[in-house]
Queue: 4 jobs
Job 1
Amino acid sequence: MSSDATSSDSSLDPHNDAAAAQADDGSTGQMVEDVESTAAELDADGASRGTLRDVANSLGISSAVALRALRGADEIKPRMVERVREAAERLHFPLEELSGETEHRGVVAVLVNTMRNTWISDLVRSIRIELAATGRTAVVVPTRRRLPEYPVAVDTDAVENLVHLGVDGFLMVSDLADMDEVLEATGNRPLVGIGCSKELVGRIDTVRIDDEVGQGLLVDHLVSLGHREIAHVGGVGAAVARERADAFRAAMARHGLADSARVEPGDFTEQVGQTAGSMLLRGSQVPTAVTCANDVTAVGVLSAAREAGYDVPEAFAVAGYGNTSLASSGVAELTSVDPNSERLGALAAQMLVDRVSGHEGPFRDVAVAPSLVARRTTAAGPRPETTRRKRISVD
């Protein structure tokens, strides 16, 4: 990667980014969903539901102070307690779900495929903050196991053991393998999916990333820089990966670039990302930019670019998905889609508490709008075209 490009770390507003792309090609067809309005689906009366973090941010205090104030802790001044409660009522935070410090504390299990994805830590932090308001805590449980007869399988024994231990319910990060077995193993315990595919909508409560918006923001950004030969690494390993690949194709088609929308098969791992990147860079038609299924895959593509001698971003632009610590690191400085992990985790925790508290309505689905964070790996337009040598035949 070249060191000449200037470093940037700016979050682009989805509305402004989409408007800029519209000015570029006439019409994007991309509607960015208002994050606040999506929370309205949580209330039967249509009122927007605020999270504990929303209450704290509205007053410029920490979530921990807001929680202690709502519980009437002795060290919090009465005036602050009054202000926090007023903010909670104004933002429709569910005060009725608060429990006292001395009450029994339940446990919520967060089911994950892997512990290597740094996005999970961002989610778990927001989940724990929101659950703390109801006297609950969260434990992260890897559920992936490998069997000789299957490449990947879910550890249903672990899920059943958690049920026997008396967990209040389950939060599932992304899609787990063998979902029918997972649902059977959880028994009558509530289960909420976070960042999962649309295939699970209607089967469980879901809080999803709006991947159509996310991939649209990436493609809009790259096209605005002048890129036309754009590829995507992903589409393999989970339904959500296929949906992101489909969203990439749709975004390219919206710009009239359907014919150059190449998808190189890849999953969510760095190793496969590096292999896919090598395939793209050593082919007969090398793209000038690539989007990836997640940040880990993008790091693999960056490694492939370095090995192939391509400067990033001057000769090859790379973008990830997830805005994890990998993306913001000084080594990668990776442009990435920020899925708004704080809201994803908080809304999912609220949904689960609703179910634990007796809510029996139909399964709900909320798609949270992401935003784009532009960094150095897309800080330049496409490489200049080189003149091809003409073949001369000698008789």
Job 2
Amino acid sequence: MKKIIIADDEHKILMSLEYSFKKNGYDVYIARDGTEVLDFLKTMVPDVILLDIMMPNFDGYSTLDIIKQDEKFKDTKVIFLSAKNNPKDIEKGLEMGANAYVTKPYSIKKLIQQIEELF
């Protein structure tokens, strides 16, 4: 079973993504900001991290930066899921090492398909 961490500060988004990924056979972990993601990473190596950019306390860019510094997460796929849809934001996210950048609003079905294609 693939492990996914979903990081977003919007409750409704977390709930719908959690339901959909569990339904598709994922082991789902929920984080409300980057510090919660980093707490999970102390005890696990997920297959996928779905990361919002604009979150309180610790944003998605800072979180990705720390993840990319640790060799044990080299095979973990990181996907930004963000309302920031400016081409410069997308370019920045991909240059930082994200495997994909998905803008909100999004199709959950297409999002899951896109993640599956990364493996």
Job 3
Amino acid sequence: MDVSLVPADTSDDVRERGSGVAVLPVGSFEQHGPHLPLATDTLVACAVARAVADAYPVHLLPPVTIGCSHEHADWPGTVSISAVTLHAVVRDIADSLRRSGVGALVVVNGHGGNYVLGNVVQESSARGERMALFPAAEDWETARRRAGVVTSLLTDMHAGEIETSVLLHKHPELVRPGYEAADFVADDRRHLLSLGMSAYTDSGVIGRPSLGSAEKGKELLESLADSFGEYFALLTAETAGTPSTYDDSDGSDGSEGSDGERV
């Protein structure tokens, strides 16, 4: 069993951990150019969630593997569900967790097109439920700088330096040859939602995968794990309010991170 994708916990493990915080990776099943698999966003979300679970006492959930990838529909293999369906799935999972005694949920989003996840968290928080969306753009930006990722988040939209680096680190066997020559830049994408990705790229790539490396992937995940500390402190605080600092056994205070409009 690959525990990076499917957690191997028992009920006793969850009970003993006792933080009351669950982490749900949400990805997609969509084209990622000729060099990365359709499941890339799910693999990235799982890698981030696993890094978090290795650093904090959270209940790691199996991933939601299909998201809102309608902008990629022109490529074979892409599968989407509606925003309404994704909204309902995450809400149902949060409700089920609360019934079993886990009161807080962090949604780890691996696909920029899953816009509705922000609405789920917004609405849940307004009802007084404990939920968060991770990583934020700021978390990804900090991770980008820490890892030495050259491409900006605007340029590194899809199958680029960040995603290629994470997979080179976590799943190198899934990265196909040719990423070294697959760079393509299209920073002005103002009509993306109307026209889809095929209006901006023939290959499906927007970014610079040639700059990816396993070392950058490792640093990206470590930075994001550090950034999660503030989220963990916020969701486990006795009284909701100002975020505090989580002090783990290594003395890490958590902070930092990065992600743009990658889809």
Job 4
Amino acid sequence: MANQYEKLVAQKARLKEKIDREDFKLRQSKYYENRQARKARSRRLIQKGALLEKYFQVDNLSVEQTEELLKIFADYVNAHKPSKLKKDPPNN
């Protein structure tokens, strides 16, 4: 009886270690996915910022001044945006 108990305790310990390893892998995977998403977003923001500087020549403006400039033209641009560049309507 004691031998069977010891086997069960050992099995429990092995299973706990396996669960801990799998939990670590899951957390590592989520971290990697989040890191990749952050990198992609950073790259996209840098590219869009470069295009803004290129076409609007705002490299001499502060962030606040750039925002003011964009606010001035935002309504016009959004109203006249081609339909192919608009967000897709949500599918319900």
